[in-house]
Amino acid sequence: MLEGEVISSRQHVGLQKLSALSGRIRSSIGPFKSYKFIQDESSGDSVLVCSCFRIIENLEPTCTVGQLVYETIRAHHQRYRTGSGCLLFLAGAWSRAALDSLQRGISVKHIITAMSEGIDICLDVCKKFSVSFKDLTLMEKCTAAPGGIKKASANASKEMANFDDKCLSKNGQRKVKLSRHFCETKSEILSTVWHPNQPDMIVIAESLSHGCENAMKLAGEATQMLLKTNQKCISDPLFDISKVLTCLVSGIPEDCACVVEGCILLLSDEQAAVAHVVKQQPLKVALVTGDLSQTYRHLGFKSLPGEQCVREDLDLSALSKEDEWVAKVVKLLLNLEVKLILTAGLVSQKVIQHCCKHQILVVEKVKSSVLKTIGRSTGAIPVNYATQLTESCVGHGVNVEIWRDLSSYERKSSSAVNISTGRNSGLVTVVITSCVQGKLQSLEDQFWACAYRLHHALNDGALLPGAGGTEVFCVHQLQKQAEHNRVKDSKTGSAANPYRGLVLQLMADGLIDYISAVMVNTGRFSTAKARTTVCKQLMEFHRDEISTEKFMQLVSQSKREDAGFSAVKPDETPALNIYDNLSVKQEAWRKALDLVFLVLQTDAEIITGTGQKHEGNLMLL
User: Fold this and answer.
1) What's phi and psi for 518, nearest 5 deg?
2) What would the pLDDT profile of 568-592 be if each residue is shown by its tens digit?
């Protein structure tokens, strides 16, 4: 149980714990995140974090719900690198909605049915109000022009009407499928093959920066560099995130961060000495996908813990198994004339020492995607174990250059080298710097969040209105459906699901809580003022049906009028519009509700059992 949280044993404990966990990341949603120190009471070590994923990762939740939350957040983070805060916050908000529903006597079956309809409504809003890149650049031009959008309303309206017709023709309800592994579902994307130009890329990147302008600038530069180096592949113009890697350098100011073509890697003093010997020479390269050590076994061949080998005749004069293995590997490398080894895993110290004696450069912890890219451009075939290397596995034509000498910064790694191939591998390295060692991970997370937003945007071919705009319209639609359900019930006197309207309203309240929390995190709103502002905007929505064009004006206006997302005054030219990723937001909402359903039903099974008389209230997983 989390400290400071009161868990009632009379209610659904799992939902309460889910709500409690989500409260821990309230200050980490939206573009303005607060840094936190998390300290290990047993060791005294501490870590500086600011993202939802890093908070949950370092809290190390031990309860069942905590483990489920961690696995869900980790799976989402590994694929999207952004949106984890939204996922966990809404999981907490909707778990409170489910708890409230249970306290009102609503059955689990009715809660799941109504909430499933609610998420369908929200996903339909996403499809309806997605903004294609063509419409995005059009709106930005209209916004930048004198008089703003109003002056060009005739041409904005026509494009939007066509876009609405296209989106509204794509109907389809979401089928509720639960999985304990939260398998990814393929989103309905509005994309077509799109060839970006530099002005379009700048507009898209800036609109997705979400307060991380420096990180997005690096991501934009990396994208442009990749598009430039891979311009021959016109059929595949998208941002290939697998060809981007990061290099963290401490002791250097943050404004020294840069983007470099090639693969930048840090070396120790011993490795740097070898690099100076082999630099600017065409080298043979070997690629190893695992650890370079005698004890390493890839998945499926791990030995049992505590397993020991016993020999009756122990020869103390003989070489150890490790020494024999190292000698065998070094001899093999010398016979193959390999001068560079790149491994995805770790390298034992003995291997490094012996290789350095023979002027063989060994570099560990290289991204698997980088190994594959270098393999394709050099002809090298990655192997699991160094002993599997043959002449056909060795690549040719790799160059090592000394990129920077870092010895003056008193670093453990004294040099940075650039590993490149003569065949244009297309690799790009983003060098992230900071004088504060503990801040490097957060800066790296910010960069990857921006890079993946750009990557997903280019894959989706469309964006969603940001700054809470999409959520506000979802609230409007949920409340509209809830009111329609209430009026219909009062006229007919009966309903198939009499609780549908109430549950939809509770889901809407969760979204309002999310929007308000983001506004509070800007530092310009109190909780009460944030909710008042949201309610005021909802009143404007309820007065009449909002067209796509008017909706976009309203979002833009809300940012100019003390909405906390922009410092631009109402009488000035409006700031660049803020957008969110279509696929990321849809998947975060789906996972949030699936997490609530799984915990809700697990609680119900524990409380009521799974006998036949209770099966009517449960949905099979």
Assistant:
1) -65, -40
2) 233 333 345 789 999 999 999 999 9
| Residue 249 structure tokens | 């350098």
Q: Nearest Cα to 85, choosing from 591, 598, 599?
A: 591
pLDDT of residue 147 exceeding 60: no
pLDDT of residue 186: 44
- Going by the DSSP 8-state scheme, the letter that residue 586 receives in this structure is H
**Which one, of 530, 440, 519, 512, lies nearest residue 32 by Cα?**
519
**Structural domain spans, the chain:** 13-186+464-617, 241-296+320-461
Tokens of 62: 């031990």
Contacts of 52 (CB under 8 A, 6+ apart): 25, 28, 29, 73, 84, 85, 87, 88
State both tokens at 357.
């004696």
Amino acid at 20: A
CA 94, 95, 101, 107 dihedral sign is positive
Burial of 503 (C-beta count, 10 Å sphere; 0-12/13-18/19+): buried
Residue labelled with tokens 């056909």 = 392
Is the Cβ–Cβ distance between 266 and 407 less than 8 Å?
no
Q: What is the largest CA-CA distance in the chain?
A: 95
Structure-block tokens of residue 281: 């020479």
Q: Phi then psi for 113, rounded to 5 degrees?
A: -60, -45
Query: How far is 576 from 562, CA to CA, in rounded Å?
Result: 15
In 3D space, the residue among 111, 121, 7, 4 whose CA is nearest the CA of residue 506 turns out to be 111
Concatenating the DSSP letter of every residue in 95-164 gives HHHHHHHHHTT--HHHHHHHHHHHHHHHHHHHHHT-EEHHHHHHHHHHHHSTTHHHHTHHHHHHHHHHHH
Query: d(Cα 134, Cα 31) in Å, to the nearest integer?
Result: 26
Q: Residues 451, 549: contact at Cβ < 8 Å?
A: no
Instruction: Report residue 278: phi and psi, to 5°.
Output: -95, 0
Model confidence pLDDT, tens digit, residues 150-209: 433 334 734 333 333 333 333 333 344 444 334 444 444 444 445 556 677 888 898 999
Tokens representing 56? 């949950």
Rounded Cα–Cα distance for residues 432 and 116 (Å) = 43
**Tens digits of per-residue pLDDT, 207-245?**
999 989 999 999 999 988 888 776 654 444 567 888 999
3-class state of residue 423 by DSSP: coil
373: three-class secondary structure by DSSP? helix
- Separation CA 505–CA 104 (nearest Å): 14
List, as own/partner pairs, every contact residues 304-307 make where C-beta atoms lie below 8 angstroms and the sequence separation is at least 24, other chains included: none
Q: Is 364 helix (H, G, I), strand (E, B) or coil?
A: coil
The secondary element (H helix, E strand) that includes residue 416 is strand 413-421
Determine the CATH number of domain 13-186+464-617. Answer: 1.10.560.10
241-296+320-461 belongs to which CATH class? alpha beta
Tell me the pTM: 0.82
As a dihedral over the C-alpha atoms of residue 211, residue 149, residue 144, residue 214, rounded to 10 degrees, the angle is 10
- Scored b (16 or more CB within 10 A) or e, 413-446 reads bbbbbbbbbeeebbbbbbbbbbeeeebbbbbbbb
Q: Per residue, what are the HEC states of 297-328?
A: CCCCCCCCCCCCCCCCCCCCCCCCHHHHHHHH
Rounded Cα gap, residues 517 and 193, in angstroms? 37
Residue 404 phi/psi, 5-degree rounding, is -145, 145
Which amino acid is it at 191?
S
Half-sphere exposure of 434 (CA within 13 A, CB side): 14
